[in-house]
Amino acid sequence: MKINLITPAKKHSKNGNRTSALRWAGILSDAGHAVEVHTEYDGSACDLMIALHAWRSAKAVDIFTEKHPNKPLIVALGGTDVNSFLQSDPTITLATMEKADALICLHDQIGEALPPHLLNKLHVIYQSARPLESPRKVDEARFDICVVGHLRREKDPLRAALAARLLPDHSKIQVFHLGKAHNNDWARIARREAAENHRYHWRGEVSGDTVRQEFEKTRLMVLSSNQEGGANVISEAIMAGVPVLASNIAGNTGLLGRDYPGLFPLGDQQALADLLYLAETKPQFLSDLENACQSLRPRFLPEREAAAWVRVVNSLQ
Predict the structure, then answer these.
(1) Considering the entire predicted model, what is its pTM?
(2) Which of 100, 112, 145, 272 is found 20 to 30 A from 245 (Cα to Cα)?
(3) Measured between alpha carbons, how far is 269 from 192 in angstroms, rounded to an integer?
């Protein structure tokens, strides 16, 4: 099949949408399909469209369904589709979802937020990641943790830095933040925090290889977002053997489970600080996190994600 994959993320972007789109294109190309990735749809002929993000790709979906009313359409739901636009602009968001022949979601609790009539075409496909190529080597004399994510409101990006301020003076915890500032204001905030907080180090936008290098040495990763659609960085950390501390929101518990031991209340830096210190000082707690993540690894295997995508696409031929 000739597949047109639409993503709102620009060609050279390093954000999650672009990463996901390129990985899906690779999966479907390996399955024998001809896949093109675009940010807009020009109306050209194809056998199937996959639109990433219901609200942001609504224009492309409208053009496709008008020009090719009998061709199948898959819409992959972004976190902001469900957490924001379903409330702020339900007309466009729901219309796009309803035009789809199949809806893809990235964690297993998204269905709880959708109208019941859409659930029969909803498919959960967990995003995958590759394991590290060599064993992790942490420095036992240090306790480095990482935050991997761009600095923007949805990520609550400085929560780990604020938690680190609450740690006892003798703590060895250092926070390394890898991610691009959404705008100049966020860049100024991060620089000021790094200047005032000796435990916080902002590295800016980095490559995927640099993230993997960080995973080789970090003790754990913090994901403090106030909304997520199923962050790929969770699967990346787990497949790298890095335990996770995460805010207790659906986008995280839909990947980790509601009973995952490393959850903290959204926006609660004291609770996060308590978990960080527990991980640093109580080896059994860190081991519990590692074991919980190890048990989740099968759902994030690349072959599982690939098989799920192939099933959905084949069902629409």
Answers:
(1) 0.93
(2) 112
(3) 18
